C-alpha cells in the first residue's frame, strides 16, 4: 500500500477542480513533494486509438496492455465483467510518493475540499459527505467549514499542507 498522504478535490462539473489541481501540483512539487493524481470520470474513456497495436491487443482479449517508451509508460486494464476498482485498489497501484491528489470520488472516505462556484447554480454537497473539510469558492460564503479563495491556489496549497501535516 502506498503510504502517501491522500487528499481529495471534489465539485460539480465545471466548478474548476482540474484548474485548481493544475495550479496546486507545481506548488507542491516546488516544495520537494512527489505528487501523484487519481482522477475519477463518470464517462467512458479510452486513451488508446483504434488501429494501434495496443488497441488491437485489448480488442483481442488481453486483460492488461502496457505501453513503454523512453519518456513514460502506461498500463491499461480492461475491466470486462469486473466491477470498477475502488479508490483503495487504485491507490495501491501507485508508485511511492508523498502526496496523492484525488479528483472526484465525492463519496470516498478521504478528506477533501469541495470546489463551489455559486454562478453554476448547483447545491453544496458537503452536508452529505462529512469528509469535506473545507470549501474553495470564487465568492464569499458563510459556512461552518473553512472557506478558501478558489483564485488563491498558494493559500489553498498551504492550507492542505497544514491539514495533512506536510508543512
Characterize the structure shown.
The chain has one domain (5-45, 83-163): Rossmann fold, CATH 3.40.50.300. It has 4 helices and 8 strands; from the N terminus they run βαβαββαββββα. The protein has helices spanning 17-29, 53-59, 87-93, 153-163; strands at residues 5-11, 35-39, 64-68, 73-77, 99-103, 112-116, 132-137, 147-149. The mean pLDDT is 89. Residues 7-138 form the Molybdopterin-guanine dinucleotide biosynthesis protein B (MobB) domain. It holds the Pfam family MobB. This is Molybdopterin-guanine dinucleotide biosynthesis protein B.
Compact description:
This is Molybdopterin-guanine dinucleotide biosynthesis protein B. The protein has helices spanning 17-29, 53-59, 87-93, 153-163, and strands at residues 5-11, 35-39, 64-68, 73-77, 99-103, 112-116, 132-137, 147-149. The protein is an alpha/beta fold.
Amino acid at each position: 500500500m502506498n503510504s502517501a498522504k491522500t487528499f481529495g478535490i471534489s465539485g460539480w462539473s465545471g466548478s474548476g477542480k482540474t484548474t485548481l489541481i493544475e495550479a496546486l501540483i507545481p506548488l507542491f512539487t516546488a516544495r520537494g513533494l512527489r505528487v501523484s493524481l487519481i482522477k475519477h470520470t463518470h464517462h467512458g474513456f479510452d486513451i488508446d486509438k483504434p488501429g494501434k497495436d495496443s488497441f488491437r491487443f485489448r480488442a483481442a482479449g488481453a486483460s492488461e496492455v502496457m505501453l513503454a517508451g523512453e519518456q513514460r509508460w502506461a498500463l491499461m486494464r480492461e475491466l470486462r465483467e469486473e466491477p470498477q476498482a475502488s479508490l483503495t485498489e487504485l491507490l495501491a497501484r501507485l508508485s511511492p510518493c508523498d502526496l496523492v491528489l484525488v479528483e472526484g470520488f465525492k463519496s470516498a472516505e478521504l478528506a477533501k475540499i469541495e470546489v463551489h462556484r455559486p454562478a453554476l447554480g448547483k447545491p453544496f454537497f458537503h452536508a452529505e459527505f462529512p469528509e469535506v473539510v473545507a470549501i474553495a469558492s470564487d465568492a464569499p460564503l458563510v459556512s461552518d467549514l473553512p472557506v478558501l479563495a478558489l483564485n488563491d491556489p498558494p493559500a489553498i496549497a498551504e492550507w492542505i499542507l497544514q491539514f495533512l501535516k506536510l508543512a
